[in-house]
Amino acid sequence: MGNCKSSSRALRGKAHVVPDSEWRMQDFGKTHVPDLEWKINDFSSLLETGAKSAASAAFHCSGYNWYLKVNPVRKETGSETPYVALSLMTSRASMMPGHTVHVVFELSIYNHSKGMYCGCKATYNFHFKNTYSKEHCLIPLQELLKSPAFLVNDSCVFGVEILKIDVSSPEKKAFVVQKKATTVQNLFVQKKGFVKGTYTWNIDNFLELDLDHFVCSPTFEVGGHKWYVQMYPRGDKHSTDCLSLYLRLDASDELHLESKKVIVMTLSILDQKNGKHLTATSGLLVFTGGHGWGWADFLGLKKLKDPSGGYVVGSSCIMKADLTIFGSSIDG
Fold first, then answer.
1. Residue 240 class from Cβ within 10 Å (0-12 exposed, 13-18 middle, 19+ buried)?
2. Fewer CB within 10 Å, N side or C side of the chain?
């Protein structure tokens, strides 16, 4: 289960439009063999959604689940020029407390004119509380949109190759990255006909809940599929003194899915006194049956319990989920 709260930080450097000779990319040649090849079809539709990011479905490498994330409108500090930026994510469920996973990897975009990937090499220390790498700007968005080398039939191909993994842990485990066949994923974003749904979860006995475990809402249907909200009143193992909140696609839907669903979700806790609702909105995320995305640190417990805040009135707490299905993700 992933956490979609971004922890990316602005890259420091010159804040000006750079010519292609200064793009943040190098030709990788034939040595770059991606662990994930991710084709985004209908790239213009992705931009039209207004989503600040899109994440791939999971791919597996050396015992960890990984995701590739693209931010098509990344702006560096002091600059108004949007860049297409990539970052690497891992699943918190893959990480062990006390372990730091140092990863060397290459982020790339396919150059059809040259017949090779171009990109940048990066390193990052992943751990239990930090599962998102920095975002790395590759190419100005406007340059990508007018380039037949990178954008073909409104589609572009991104990649990531994990070169090395070192684990610092009490056991001092070492991993050798075993090369295997490239995972291929296709993301399809619809131009119209989006399916939207809203569900309000009224919890009348919030103070009587078993606070040491999670609580699930009744299932609700959006787009012909069953969804539910999962809440940890005292936070899950990934949180720090916060209520944790997730949206899940019901596991029973797995057998009925022809493709994975790509959605944008907004989760909220309603302020019943002041109307100052607390909300969090994701980028484009891929959901499969039984899988969830959300926020481990959704709302601090101190703020949740503050009687002036209106999040818990008497024993009443109201959660809300809004989701829009924008497309699908297909393997291969």
1. exposed
2. C
Angular region, 298: left φ>0, alpha ψ -120 to 50, beta rest: alpha
Q: Apex CA 39: angle with CA 321 and CA 289, to 5°? A: 35
CA–CA separation, 74 vs 87, rounded Å?
Answer: 11
What is d(CA 18, CA 73) in angstroms, rounded to the nearest whole number?
16
Any idea what DSSP says for residue 301? H
Where do the DSSP E strands lie in 223-316? 225-232, 242-249, 260-269, 278-281, 285-287, 292-300
Q: Please, what sign has the CA dihedral across residues 253, 5, 198, 300?
A: positive
Containing H/E element for 45?
helix 43-48
Look at 190-194, 228-232, 289-293 and tell me which has the smallest mean pLDDT.
289-293
- Contacts of 200 by beta carbon, 8 Å cutoff, 6+ apart: 318, 319, 320
Which one-letter DSSP state was computed for residue 206? G
pLDDT of residue 139: 93
Query: Which H or E run contains 215?
Result: strand 215-216
Answer yes or no: are the C-beta atoms of 229 and 249 closer than 8 Å: no
Prediction pTM value: 0.87
Secondary structure of 161-178 as H, E, C letters: EEEEEEEECCCCCEECCC
One-letter amino acid identity for 26? Q
Q: Specify the pLDDT at position 242.
A: 94
SS3 content of the chain, % helix, strand, coil (to 5): 10, 50, 40
Whole-angstrom Cα Rg for the chain: 21
SS3 159: strand
User: Does the pLDDT at position 4 exceed 70?
Assistant: no
Domain annotation for the chain: domains and CATH numbers: 2-189 (2.60.210.10), 195-331 (2.60.210.10)
